[in-house]
Design goal:
The chain is α/β, with parallel strands linked by helices and 257 residues long. The chain has helices spanning 40-48, 70-77, 95-106, 111-124, 140-152, 170-187, 198-204, 222-226, 231-256; strands spanning 2-11, 14-24, 29-33, 55-60, 63-64, 80-83, 158-162, 190-194, 207-212, 215-220.
C-alpha cells in the first residue's frame, strides 16, 4: 500500500498540488486521472521520488520515502517497476537485452539466471518469439508489452504506469489494460496508473483519484463514477471521450495513409 498525506508542491511560487491525500491499495489498479496541467504527472513524480514535495508524507507500507537516506531510497527503487509513456526501450538493444537491463544493473544473479528471468517475463506478456528482435522491428503494442516485461524483471512490489495506452489503437489499449490488471492481481502489486483514457478508467479503475487544478476533486471506483453527481468529473469524462474519438480517427488516418 502507498499512502500520501497532505502533499504540497510548488514551482516558482505557483502551487501545483495542494494538500493531496490518497491511499493506493495493494492488489488493485489505482488510477490517477485529470486534464493536462491538473497536476497528476507532478503527483506521480513525487510518489516515485523524481520530485520532492514541499511538504507532506509519502508512505510505502509505512516507510516514508521523504525521510530515507540515499541507500534506503536505492533499496526502495529496487522494489519499483516503472512503465514509461513512450516505452523507453533502448533502440540498440534487443527486446531480451532491454528486459535484462534492470537485472544487469541490480540483480546479484549470474548471467544465465538473469537471462532466464527475462525470458520468463517476456513469456508472461506473450512475447516468446521476439527475444532477438529490436524495438524498431516490433509494433507499438509489442513495445509496450516488452516495457511491461522489463518493469516486472525485478519482481517489484510497486508498479507505476505513465499513460500506458498513449499512441495505441483501442483494441491494443484494451489488451494492455487487461495485462496490467492481471499482473497486478497475479503478483499482488500496488499499481498506480496515470491516465486520461476513460476506456482504461471504466475497464480497470478499481480505485480512481480525480485531480482538478492541483486538488483532489473526487475519489471512488469505476462503478461509482456512473452515479457521481460531480460536475467537474462529468465535464472531464465528456472532454476525454471527445479527445479519444479524435485520437482514434488520427490513428486510422495514419494507417490508411
Amino acid at each position: 500500500m502507498i499512502e500520501i498525506k497532505n502533499i504540497v508542491k510548488s514551482f516558482e511560487n505557483r502551487v501545483i498540488l495542494s494538500n493531496i491525500n490518497a491511499v493506493f491499495e495493494t492488489g488493485k489498479t489505482n488510477l490517477i486521472i485529470g486534464r493536462s496541467g491538473s497536476g497528476k504527472t507532478v503527483l506521480l513524480k513525487d510518489i516515485i521520488g523524481l520530485l520532492v514535495p514541499d511538504s507532506g508524507e509519502i508512505l510505502y507500507d509505512d516507510r516514508n520515502i521523504l525521510n530515507m537516506n540515499k541507500k534506503e531510497i536505492l533499496g526502495l527503487r529496487r522494489e519499483m517497476g516503472i512503465l514509461f509513456q513512450g516505452s523507453a526501450l533502448f533502440d540498440s538493444m534487443t527486446v531480451l537485452e532491454n528486459v535484462m537491463f534492470p537485472l544487469d544493473m541490480f540483480s546479484p544473479d549470474n548471467y544465465r539466471m538473469r537471462r532466464d528471468r527475462a525470458i520468463t517475463c517476456l513469456k508472461r506478456v506473450d512475447m516468446s518469439d521476439t527475444y532477438n528482435l529490436y524495438p524498431s522491428e516490433v509494433s507499438g503494442g509489442m513495445m509496450k508489452r516488452a516495457a511491461i516485461a522489463r518493469a516486472l524483471a525485478l519482481q517489484p512490489k510497486y508498479l507505476f504506469c505513465d499513460e500506458p495506452n498513449s499512441g495505441l489503437d483501442p483494441k491494443t489499449a484494451l489488451i494492455i489494460d487487461g495485462l496490467i490488471h492481471d499482473i497486478t492481481k497475479e503478483y499482488g502489486m500496488t499499481t498506480i496508473i496515470n491516465t486520461h483514457d476513460m476506456n482504461s478508467v471504466m475497464n480497470i479503475g478499481e480505485n480512481i483519484l480525480f485531480i482538478k487544478e492541483g486538488v483532489v476533486e473526487w475519489n471512488g471506483s469505476k462503478e461509482q463514477i456512473i452515479s457521481s453527481n460531480n460536475k467537474a468529473l462529468e465535464d472531464f469524462i465528456f472532454a476525454s471521450e471527445l479527445t479519444r474519438k479524435a485520437q482514434n480517427l488520427e490513428i486510422e488516418y495514419q494507417r490508411e495513409g
